């Protein structure tokens, strides 16, 4: 039940020397402020780094061929080989737990020559021969028309999905590209869709200067036969591509007569493994933030405990009178604990409010920066769990800070307290 007299006494005790109380409260304020700011900064850095992964499915590996480093079954060391479309079926049949297997071929590349034309307009773009599943592994946003489908694959249709960057260069006057034709190395493809996306290093412009065509028509038009340049392989949600990687590579080695111990013949990049390394890094950073914040907070709690000891010493005669008039030890202990908890929570909540305001201002600044999506820092924030943990820490700290002074207060005998000048 609310006791007005008791709370009036608490406020009077804390404001009797307001400057001393303010300095004491600042320790708790600063500790919780630093804790929240550190956690928000860690989250902002985590968001920025993960933003660099783009929307690509993280439980994915990429695989390509290199040169054999060991002779095997009469085949020489140093030979080159290509994946074949049959490898896709072999992997799917022999390695359970896979969601998508997307073979891919490519024309163009970094600083490539002009390979795409429309009328008098030309450009150098990456052209990918893909299956429809690639849009689930490396998502794009279709802005008009549609993406390639299995009807296009089966019928070897010469159709293309172009990025908005391609559209601007080949259709500079704002013409509608859907249904029109572009020529890729002299072969005509009808545009069936346009898209927008950011590529995996956050470059929006380069990510939209790509063209997707059906894998089968790509192979036919550009004489790739059944060759596969590389594959994107994604595991199911309850599986880890890192655990399936060795089985996948073993299937390919068997198909192409690669020595089982040749670790250089098949190149691969495990995105899931890299993603987990990033997660591990930020778990460690959060741990450091909690450690530093709690240490700073602890120094503030020690300050409150010290000041409460001084307060108890100053009020020794008052405590003696209360004990002589029949106040129970718990009543005296409760009074000291309430003062300690009240001071701790007020200063701590002020620290939380101040840090939240700083985080809000930082987010507003990032929103107003058009290049914020290309930085390694995005949307710093703390969730409600962190706030709840902070409140628990504050309440617990307030109890600990007041416990020793409270025990000192009740151990003082009334007769000795009354003699104190």
From TrEMBL:
Domain ABC3 transporter permease C-terminal: 291-414
Matching InterPro entries: ABC3_permease_C, MacB_PCD, Macrolide_Exporter_MacB
Main localization, broad class: membrane
Transmembrane segments: 21-41, 288-312, 341-362, 382-404
Topology versus the membrane: Multi-pass membrane protein
UniProtKB keywords: Cell membrane, Membrane, Transmembrane, Transmembrane helix
Subcellular location: Cell membrane
GO molecular function: transmembrane transporter activity
Sequence similarity: Belongs to the ABC-4 integral membrane protein family.
Designated name of the protein: ABC transporter permease
Origin organism lineage: Bacteria, Pseudomonadati, Bacteroidota, Flavobacteriia, Flavobacteriales
